[in-house]
Amino acid sequence: MATVGFNTGDTGFMLIASSLVMLMTPGLAFFYGGLVGRKNVLAIMMQSFLSLCYTTVIWYLCGYSLCFSGGEGGVIGDFGKACMMGVTSLTPCAANPGIPEFVFASYQMMFAIITPALITGAFTNRVTFKSYLLFLTAWLFFVYFPFVHMIWGNGFLAKQGVLDFAGGIVVHNIAGMAALASVLFVGSRTEKDPLPHSIPLVALGTGLLWFGWYGFNAGSELRVDNITAQAFLNTDVAASFAGMSWLLVAWFFEGKPKFLGLLTGSVAGLATITPAAGYVSLTSAVIIGTVSGIVCYFAVYLKNKLTLDDALDVWGVHGVGGMIGVIMLGMFAEKAVNPAGANGLFFGDAGFFKIELLTILGSSIYAFVFTYLMLTVINLITPVKIDSATEKTGLDEVLHGEQAYQSF
Question: With contact defined as beta carbons under 8 Å apart, do 18 and 113 qualify?
Fold first, then answer.
């Protein structure tokens, strides 16, 4: 009797999708852990796993409520569902009454976990653990939760017609712009270890991220239908074309086809297709993936020319990837693909393209400015940047009293 009214197929699929998105956070930990030096592996990985635990606590206490309770047409929700008050295993999800709201809350929680974890790759080896805890808390409340509510919680931007299928704005762009602000605030590393220390770890992380991304994008339909299949295949195709385009461009300019470039390009493609996955055709996904690999490669090249120490290229891959993904959603969206979506610039609706463009510009500016100001305030409470002695010895040993490799 407990499942009366629920679609068991949709419910089962969404539980699997939630598990896949959860797997992305350990995948990110491996991806980042392989990219840093040997003496900072545990510190960067712990930041991802900390978000897995700590963000879950905040999500239960009030995060879910602030995103998806009340505040229709506004910037933030209310505390009507704090501690999941009034929600039981029999409460249907508003977006799809065929699944329990518990399942929807679990799925969205996994997005909340990985988004701030993405930022950590930018300031690797440079921030104190206390400041990261404060950063994680403030960023969730003042950046992530408002954008989730405004776009996915029937808030202000949703009322303006903004679309973001799985998080080009809500996840990748705001995380990437926050990463850029963090890099400018904390400055460059004084001890630059030979990077990466383990490309096989990066490959493992990429594989887990790619696998989890099927839940990230296809699951955002919240049910099993033709759009789910469209988003699934669009995700894989865009990632593959992006990986190949990055590889070929890097091969041309750097003289050798590099495994790390293939991996990074694939992740760029995954980030870029995210906002458009369920709204564009397979042909458009090919274009989006190809453009992503090329543009994100040159974004990383620009970052290096400007000597910005975004150690793990969070801005170039996620910030730029999310931005061009939203812009290309505004160009290539088709109601013929998804009647619940919109027609983009190339299909007759310049107005939709304009609102997507304005939103991505506004979200970029807000995430950048707020993050920089937030770090300034946190630095008044506790030092954000570690001292040079700690950086030289390594964060694993000094901050956590552990080492990834005992022989080191």
Answer: no
Any idea what the Cα angle at residue 332 is, between residues 329 and 338, rounded to 5°?
85
Those residues with Cβ within 8 angstroms of residue 372's Cβ, 6 or more apart along the chain or in another chain:
181, 184, 185
Determine the residue type at 199: I
Burial class, 89, CB count within 10 angstroms (exposed 0-12 / middle 13-18 / buried 19+): exposed
Taking the whole predicted model, whether its pTM rises above 0.85 is answered as yes
Positive or negative, the CA dihedral 341, 345, 347, 352 is positive
Tokens representing 230 are 């469209």
Alpha carbons 234 and 166: distance in angstroms, whole number: 12
User: What DSSP state is assigned to residue 311?
Assistant: T
CA distance 344 to 12: 33
Set out the domains of the chain in order of their start, with CATH numbers.
8-400 (1.10.3430.10)
pLDDT tens series, the chain, 408 aa: 344 689 999 999 999 999 999 999 999 999 999 999 999 999 999 999 999 999 999 999 999 999 999 999 999 999 999 999 999 999 999 999 999 999 999 999 999 999 999 999 998 989 999 999 999 999 999 999 999 999 999 999 999 999 999 999 999 999 999 999 999 999 988 877 667 899 999 999 999 999 999 999 999 999 999 999 999 999 999 999 999 999 999 999 999 999 999 999 999 999 999 999 999 999 999 999 999 999 999 999 999 999 999 888 999 999 999 999 999 999 999 999 999 999 999 999 999 999 999 999 999 999 999 999 999 999 999 999 999 999 999 999 999 999 999 765
Residues 71, 53: Cα–Cα separation, whole Å: 27
CA-derived radius of gyration, the chain = 20
Q: How far, in Å, CA of 62 to CA of 66, rounded? A: 6
- Eight-class DSSP state of 386: P
Distance CA 22, CA 20 (A): 5
Angle at 235 between CA 232 and CA 236, to 5 degrees: 95
